[in-house]
Amino acid sequence: MLSQIPVNLAKVSKKDLDKEILRLGMIAELDAVNLYEQLASMTSNSKIKAILLDIAREEKTHVGEFQAMLLKLDKEQEKELAEGKKEVDEILG
Ligand SMILES: [Fe+2]
Asked: Could you tell me the distance, in angstroms and rounded to a whole number, from the CA of residue 11 to the centre of ligand 1?
């Protein structure tokens, strides 16, 4: 993704704007996790690898921050997130 916003937020309805901003934040943070983990796997320098993996872990915290705020605003998402976890637990037994 690398900072390219895939939608024109000016066209998003006012009631959905904050939820879409938070989702875009989550997308950007998840993308950053993948990027830093990919870069970590490419380097043979153990110090750079450690720094990249530490930053990737911090990005996961940022995902959690956006998600926590989103779940306060989007109760349907909160319910469906729990439903998704339940379905996986059922499949895995
Ligand atoms: Fe971040």
From this structure: 26
